[in-house]
Amino acid sequence: MAVCEVCHNDYDLTFEVHAAGAVHTFDSIECAAQKMAPICDNCQCRILGHGLQSNGQFFCCAHCARQRGVAELVDHA
Predict the structure, then answer these.
(1) Whole-model pTM?
(2) Where are the chain's structural domains?
(3) 3-state secondary structure string, the chain?
(4) For residue range 47-63, what is the model confidence (pLDDT) as tens digits?
(5) What's the Rg (C-alpha) of the chain?
(6) Which of 4, 61, 64, 70 shows its CA 20 to 30 Å from the CA of 37?
């Protein structure tokens, strides 16, 4: 069995995520998101969808981008 790197659960159904040259082991999507999902630079929520990015900042939505002065980002056309 393998151990989840977030919650340290020793579980027989863990899975690996290979990203940016590293290998991570998790026991749930929740733990994977907690470790790997970017955080909105405005409201600090985990960005689980597409999100938005501008000049190295990540946002969960265009509203949060506007709150930080990034007016050119939109949620949809």
Answers:
(1) 0.81
(2) 1-36, 37-77
(3) CEECCCCCCEECCCEEEEECCEEEEECCHHHHHHHHCCECCCCCCECCCCCEEECCEEECCHHHHHHCCCCCCCCCC
(4) 999 999 999 999 999 99
(5) 16
(6) 70
